[in-house]
Amino acid sequence: MQEKYIERMHKTSHISGGSAAYVEELFEQYLDDHESVPTEWQDYFKSMADETGPGTSDVSHAAIRAHFYQLANNQKKSGTVSFEHETKQIAVLKLIESYRSRGHQEAKLDPLGLMEREQVTDLKLNFHGLSDADLGTEFQTHTLYFGKEKAQLREIVANLRKTYCTSIGAEFMHIVNSEEKQWFQERLEAVQSKPAYDKETKLHILDRLTAAEGLEKYLGAKYPGTKRFGLEGGESLIPAIDQLIQKAGIYKAKEIVIGMAHRGRLNVLINTLGKKTSELIDEFEGKAEYAMGSGDVKYHQGFSSNVMTPGGEVHLSLAFNPSHLEIVAPVVQGSVRARQDKRRDTSHDTVVPIIIHGDAAFSGQGVVMETLQMSQTRAYKTGGTIHIIINNQVGFTTNKKEDARSTEYCTDVAKVVEAPILHVNGDDPEAVYFVSQLAADYRNQFNKDVVIDLVCYRRRGHNEADEPFGTQPLMYGVIKRLPSVLSQYTEQLVTESQLDKAESTKMVDNYREHLDAGNAVVKTLVENPDTALYFDWSPYLGHDWTIQADTTYDQKALVKLAEEFCQVPEGFSLQRQVKKVIDDRLLMAKGELPVNWGFAETLAYASILKQNNAVRITGQDVGRGTFSHRHAQLHDQKTGETYIPLQHLEGVEKDFTIYDSFLSELAVLGFEYGYATTNPARLVIWEAQFGDFANGAQMIIDQFVTSGEHKWGRLCGLTMLLPHGYEGQGPEHSSARLERFLQLCAEHNIQVCVPTTPAQIFHLLRRQIIRPLRRPLVVMSPKSLLRHKEAISTMEELATGSFKNVIPETEDLDPKKVTKLIMCSGRVYYDLIEKRREEKANHIAIVRIEQLYPFPTEEMGEAIAQYKNLKSAVWCQEEPKNQGAWYSSHHHLREVVSNHNPDLYVDFVGREASAAPAAGYMALHMKQLNEFLDEAIKG
Hints:
InterPro entries: 2-oxogl_dehyd_N (IPR032106), 2oxoglutarate_DH_E1 (IPR011603), DH_E1 (IPR001017), KGD_C_sf (IPR042179), ODO-1/KGD_C (IPR031717), THDP-binding (IPR029061), Transketolase-like_Pyr-bd (IPR005475). The protein is of the alpha/beta class. It folds into four domains: 2-189, no CATH class; 205-494 and 517-524, 3-Layer(aba) Sandwich (Rossmann fold), CATH 3.40.50; 594-626 and 654-800, Rossmann fold; 806-938, Rossmann fold (3-Layer(aba) Sandwich). 41% of the residues lie in helices and 13% in strands. The protein has 32 helices and 26 strands. The strands form six sheets. The protein has an eight-stranded mixed β-sheet with strand order 3-11-12-8-7-4-6-5. A seven-stranded mixed β-sheet has the order 16-13-17-18-20-19-24, sandwiched between helices. The protein is globular and about 105 Å long.
């Protein structure tokens, strides 16, 4: 067996002893992790093992090591030319790997020529023990994809520089998967990163550049100084997107969802999606009309259309976005996943996300990292996103080198998910076209994120009203003298005899004529689109808040449902406390125990599923529930296997999905918003681990959840469950910031509810999906009430009741003797009734408001109408006075009470105003609680 190894090593001239220490190190790495060494070395070491043959024992590591060193020593002693050549062959292999790993750092990426690049010592011949004297020597090239077995070092270096150091700088060696690395090596090296395009392709690229520049010049001349966040300097974006769309169509995609901020957005709307120029002109001239709400500026608007590709018709959707630059990224992902789920597309091929970023925002905004992190998780994966960065090399007025980031590239954050990064010079449109093809092919092949870093510039300032020379004089001195990419490419094609200047002038004139006519200018636009590619929203449009929903459910059917989802597979080993929860639920169904919150909530989901509606729940710890109340996902104590009972209901066609999310609020809530705005037929729920954590998603709440309908006409039925309640757990685990949501309420934009009984959450969740109204629902959900002895309901209340916006006094009081009214919301109700019983204060009626917005004025009036002898009325809340519902709701409360008795004035009872949401010490918490309860009941 040892002889076989000797023979094998002698046959491998580029390895045999020339660099024993290097080979030994590689072999050590190989033993630890096969994937950690280059592919050719994996093949070599594997072939050595294969030659042992069946039935033989492994050759010891020591024997192989001894052979490497013995061979090296023998050859050194002989002083043969063979030894020196083999040593240099190893050096050439290392040089090749250096170009693959670091060639991008010497690539000519900057159209302005201002990018400061450090010399990469790894790419120097002498770093590897080579010199100019070796340039004429032939070496084996079997690890390269140049089509030759051998080549002179001069040719090897020239081809490596063409491949990795010209207009394309490819970063892919940080990827762990060897197949992916090899894929890029082959695709790039086979054509030296510059495929030979035919005349038709080149003219198509020119046509797209003509359109991109033509629109900007048209708008610049027509509306000088008006903000449009033009694409000038980055016009190659338009042929890039065009190629991505056409490639996606070839791969049988049916939909593409695009997200982007401002830069180039109007150009994409006109030249990619086919928005009519006349519609854009109306927006510039202030003639556009909005059917509802406030509307939004033109460079925030979304759009959708259908275009034709070689693979068939494709639906394009450009997401609406606010000015928070990257915040649309997770929203796009949610929309894509919803579309894929509707198509039952588990391979994630039919819907493709494309997100266009700015360089400063990509490296600076945390939501980018959050969105990247969700890319391969079960709950949020979409099969890979194609990211394009319009790299202007300046953020507003922030210089790249000194202040914009701490790493060389704005794309370095994408390495967190091992995304390949294709840097490309924006003034080389054929290189841009090629990397677009690569990106589309990679996404299709590996279903992972890929990044195109379009290194370009902005010809004007941050917007057209800015004067950029004031902050970037050197950069704009170069830009002022630089011909546009269209001018450069036209000259190139004229030089190549692909067209003459008259033809290019005619292309410009033709495009301008189409703009003047006000028509759509996209040639692939489908005028009579396939309506099957659209979702029918008509059942959800035009409904008023007064629309009713029958949330009752046959009690016998509820009992049967409970028996179904309380069953676990035979032999499934439940943890002791969890088993008790399941056993108790069976007793609740039979009426032997009162219904608690977790059981009522689970029954709501089960009944929704039975009535042919799907349910999706995500958030941190939602499977179990942060407070161990839900147990929607069970875990076998012996095998670790999971079981979700609601996925196994008899005769249920719609699916129930529940995922514990990764530790993110901003991106996850953005994702669920995007999902809910795309699929109104599913109850979509995001639950915060604690309600306070919604703070981390405030941008999504402000810019999308509460205002999306009035800015963009986007209906959304998203439900947010935010645990809220003051139990002495300190400032960070008490408040879901109810006051912030109420401050955002206007024009019936959202629903804000504070349910206090299991029956209430049962009917509230059912109401949200059963009635066709699609508006966000914000629920201040409980913590201690999940197990409170009085926060209970009956099966009859679930079966026959409905959600009550107001719950009147529930105890048997004599209305004639009631002289004081306490209005409240949430868990403080249970503290109040306990205190009332202690004090035997039966002259006080307590009314709960379960829906704070839209405020239930009529129901509130009915709840207090019977009390004719009121002398005082108060609003009691556990939150500090400057928080909670008081400031946003006191005018509603006073209006209702005043209508009942004009002489009554509603006063406040609760904690004093506070900078922090809650006390951090239990003793202080209890002192405050007892003080305001005394004031409410005794005062």
